[in-house]
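S.,

Sequence below, as promised.
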Amino acid sequence: EKGILTETPAILAYLAHRFPEHDLAPTDPFEFAIAQSINSYMASTVHVAHAHKHRGARWADDAAAHQSMRAKVKENMTECARMIETHYLNGPFVLGDKFSFCDPYMALVTRWFGDDGVDLTPFPKIRAHDALMRARPSMQRVLELHA
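The prediction came back faster than expected:
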């Protein structure tokens, strides 16, 4: 036991390196940095945009401010979906043709899009990734546990 890890990108990178036999992360340093960039965007931008729906008290004490934050969630999350669709989905999986440590995080983000009222019709790559992930037996088990 070396200590406690926090923050999703760090945890995902640790798991990918801890279990190299599963080939979850790129071995090329630049390609790994791209993966970390994608996970960091989901952590620092998408997660924060989603959090405004239920945790406005992190940013303001005023109830009216909380309502204003909630009112912007769908718009902000739609912009996040547009960014992911345009710049971050590079194949059937996040990094291309094979499953990586980015894909479970993207699957969670896609659930948030639905929870936040984002219409995914204009985002075929996100919808295709969601279908691909939902077809995985491991994802089906997770969805059963957290339905």
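The chain has a mean pLDDT of 95.

Coffee later?
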